[in-house]
Amino acid sequence: MHKDVKEILFSEEQLKERVAQIAAQIDRDYAGKELMLVSVLRGSFIFMADLVRAITVPCKVDFMAVSSYGSGTVSSGQVQITKDLSEDITGRHLLVVEDILDSGNTLSYLLEVLRARKPASIRLCTLLDKPERRVKPVHLDYTGFTIPDAFVVGYGLDYDEYYRNLPYIGVLRPSVYGGEE
Ligand code: IMP
Ligand code: MG
Known about the structure:
Elements: E1 5-10, H1 12-29, E2 35-41, H2 45-54, E3 59-67, E4 80-83, E5 93-101, H3 105-115, E6 121-129, E7 142-146, E8 152-153, E9 169-172
Parallel strand pairs: 2-3, 2-5, 5-6, 6-7
Antiparallel strand pairs: 1-9, 3-4, 8-9
Bound molecules: inosinic acid and magnesium ion (MG).
The site of magnesium ion has 4 residues, from β5.
């Protein structure tokens, strides 16, 4: 385990198993349809890569990047699109893939932007849900795991851009960001 990680919440095996279950559900729900997966960078890149390889319905992928955090652990509430989609999404079935839903600021803003482009449908898939700090209500269609209010890293999730490469999801030691142990 990495020295800055206090506790492992989900191991590689647990993540793999859950991703397979979500993909199977998506396959059932989108049978006969064509799907467009929209990954919200950067946190969801690993989840997206694993999820798309477990999905068997025909699908396209596209990427969007937003910033709302800076280098802290609490979202600023001000969301900016730093990279937009490459494809036109009008009339398409969109599945937005996120790493974690926390305050809900990022996704509620993103959904508003995407809905205005008139896709045929939009659903949300997040690997992690941290409901305790929700400020804006967001309806989730697919959730990997619900977690308590702790700052987690690994499997794509970062603190100050580090730790994304950890193969598991772990709780970051609060001393790393100047909090109480
Ligand atoms: P929200 O706008 O507060 O819902 O924040 C969503 C974004 O904040 C996520 O997409 C993550 O990039 C980031 N985030 C929230 N909680 C964590 C965490 O515990 N670890 C790493 N990133 C997080
Ligand atoms: Mg994110």
